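re: that chain from earlier
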Amino acid sequence: MDIAFHVTENDLEAVRRLVRENGDNPLVEIRRERNVRGETPPLTEEGCWQAHMMCLLTTQQRSGPTSHVHRFLTTRPFPLRLAALPEADQRKEFIQRTLQNSGGIRRNGVIADHACRNLQWFSGAGWGELSELLESLGAVDDHLVEREVADQVADAFHGFGPKQSRNFLQVLGLTCYEIPVDSRIVKWLRSELEFPLALQSATLSDREHYRLISEGIRQLCETAGIYPCEFDAMVFSRIEGDAWADVDPAF
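^ sequence. v structure.
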């Protein structure tokens, strides 16, 4: 059984209004240059590790430009970079203590546990498997391939679900179609459209439901002549303004 989305003229006008008001925002231009027009950025272990940490840190807590999470993520050098991590038996305590000392970051123990589990996989066969998977995105422009890779990334990392895996791929500049459906996107869909699917956290954690919502957003954007990754940046800049304009979204 298939579900068909019908994009109305009112839907298109809502997107056009979003483009008019936010299409020239510096963050949107960064997204276009990195995810749409630019060449696929080189993949490194450190870059992927830090992007993964960003996903863990931005789950279930505020991550806007004035948040504790944002301040921690933009600290240079990054406090939890691979070279800064101790031996395995001291690693969880180190990560948890570093997050606690930063102040204002919640879920420290959970994040530390997920990070240690992921590093155990990552430092073994994981990096080779992950880099091969990610490099497959550089040769195609296909929303179905992006969706499959996002699902595989979600399966690979502890603490990841549909949103985190798409956030990971987007910040690395690898995707145009699959985006993290977060509270900002949900708020826009609810306020601007009569979106036909439930948009609660519980349903968004379900892979198949997330796929349906992602497909609805993709069709809306395709009809409006923009990529979903541009739409995501426009919604973000609509709420957060220019506050992230001087921050490179990639590590």
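The chain is about 65% helix and 0% strand.
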